[in-house]
Specification:
Elements (H helix, E strand, L loop, with lengths): L1 E5 L6 H10 L3 E6 L2 H9 L3 E4 L5 H9 L3 E4 L9 H19 L5 E7 L25 H9 L6 E7 L2 E3 L6 H12 L2 E4 L5 E6 H14 L4 E5 L2 E5 H12 L3 E4 L1 H7 L3 H8 L7 H7 L8 H7 L13
Parallel strand pairs: 1-2, 1-4, 2-3, 4-5, 5-6, 6-10, 7-9, 8-12
Antiparallel strand pairs: 9-11
Length: 307
C-alpha cells in the first residue's frame, strides 16, 4: 500500500513511517520545510512539500495514495479555535480526496477529549467542556467520511507518547522540576495519567490502516492510568530533588500556565481494551515509569515550555 502521511517528521511520525515501511508499505510524507523533507528522506519516505494550510497539496497527496495517516496538528495553543479550524479543514481536504474509494483514512486525536474523573472507553462520548475540545471537530469530520465510502477511523493517543527525545507533557514537567528545584504534583497525586510508548503507537497506526473498520474509534493507550504522584516521585529520585504536593492554586503559578496545571492535575484514565480486541494490538514496549528511570528523559535537558 502507498500511504500518504502528515506529521511524519515530528516526534511520533517517524516511528509510524518506519513501521509502515518495515511492513512493506511505501510512504509519501508532507514536508513543510527543508529539514522535514530531509528527515523523511532519511526514513526512505518521499517528501511532498506543503503544509496543513496547503489544501491542494493535501488533496494531491491523498489522491495519489492507497491510504492516509493524518498525524500533523499545527497552530498556536494560545488560539485553540484556530488550531481546531486548521485541523478540521485539513481533514476535510484529505477525506474529500478519498470519497467513494473504500481507502483507509486514519486521523489522530487525543484521549484528553474524554470526560475526566472516571475510566472512559472507546464507546464514550467526548466532552465538549473538557480539556481538549478543539480536537473534537476533527474527530467528527474524519468519522463523517465513513458514510461517504472511506474506511475512516480515529486514534485517540494518550497525552504522553513516550520515547527518546520526547519534549511533550512529561518533558515540560521535567524542565519545570529542574527550573524550580522541586518535582511537583497536584493534591495527593492519585489522579491517573494514561501513556503509550511511541513504538507501540506506531504499530497501532499501521494496524488501523490495514484493518480498522470504517467508523472505528480507537484508543492508543498501553497504560490506563499511572498515578501522577508516582511520575513526580520517579522524576524527583532521578534528579535528586524533593517531590512536593501543591494545591491547585499553587500549581497554577508553578507550572508553565494555569492550563498546564489543570492538565497535570486531571484524573484522566482511559481504557484501550476494545482497541486491543478489535485489532489484536499488544503493547510490548517499556512503561512510562521504566522510560523515566532508564530512558533519556533525565539525561537530556528539556527546553522549558516546549510543546
Amino acid at each position: 500500500m502507498h500511504v500518504f502521511v502528515t506529521g511524519g517528521s515530528g516526534l511520533t511520525g517517524p516511528a509510524i513511517v518506519t513501521e509502515l515501511i518495515a511492513a512493506g508499505h511505501t510512504v509519501t510524507g508532507l514536508a513543510r520545510s527543508d529539514a522535514a523533507a530531509a528527515r523523511l528522506s532519511s526514513l526512505n519516505a518521499t517528501p511532498l512539500r506543503g503544509s496543513l494550510a496547503d489544501l491542494d497539496a493535501l488533496r494531491r497527496g491523498a489522491e495519489a495514495a492507497d491510504g492516509v495517516v493524518h498525524m500533523a496538528f499545527g497552530g498556536d495553543f494560545a488560539d485553540p479555535d484556530d488550531m481546531m479550524r486548521r485541523d478540521r479543514t485539513a481533514i476535510e481536504a484529505l477525506g474529500s480526496a478519498l470519497r467513494d474509494s473504500g481507502k483507509p483514512f486514519v486521523s489522530t486525536s487525543g484521549t484528553l477529549v474524554m470526560p475526566l474523573g472516571r475510566e472512559t472507553t472507546e464507546h464514550d462520548t467526548p466532552d465538549p467542556n473538557g480539556l481538549a475540545p478543539f480536537r473534537i471537530p476533527g474527530e467528527t469530520a474524519c468519522l463523517g467520511f465513513a458514510d461517504e465510502g472511506v474506511r475512516a477511523s480515529v486514534i485517540r493517543l494518550a497525552p504522553t507518547v513516550h520515547g527518546p527525545g520526547d519534549h511533550g507533557f512529561i518533558g515540560m514537567l521535567i524542565a519545570t522540576a529542574r527550573r524550580t528545584g522541586i518535582s511537583a504534583y497536584v493534591g495527593d497525586g492519585t489522579n491517573r495519567w494514561p501513556a503509550v510508548h511511541r513504538l507501540d503507537a506506531a504499530v497501532l497506526f499501521r494496524s488501523a490502516l490495514e484493518q480498522a473498520p470504517a467508523g472505528s474509534v480507537l484508543h492508543g493507550v498501553a497504560e490506563t492510568g499511572v498515578p501522577f504522584e508516582r511520575i513526580a516521585t520517579t522524576i524527583a529520585r532521578g534528579l535528586d530533588l524533593p517531590a512536593v504536593s501543591l494545591t491547585p492554586e499553587q500549581a497554577a503559578t508553578h507550572f508553565v500556565s494555569p492550563f498546564m496545571a489543570m492538565v497535570y492535575g486531571a484524573d484522566a484514565p482511559v481504557s484501550g481494551s476494545f482497541t486491543r480486541d478489535l485489532l489484536g494490538w499488544k503493547p510490548i514496549q517499556p512503561t512510562l515509569l521504566d522510560d523515566l528511570e532508564h530512558g533519556d528523559y533525565l539525561t537530556v535537558a528539556q527546553p522549558y515550555g516546549a510543546h
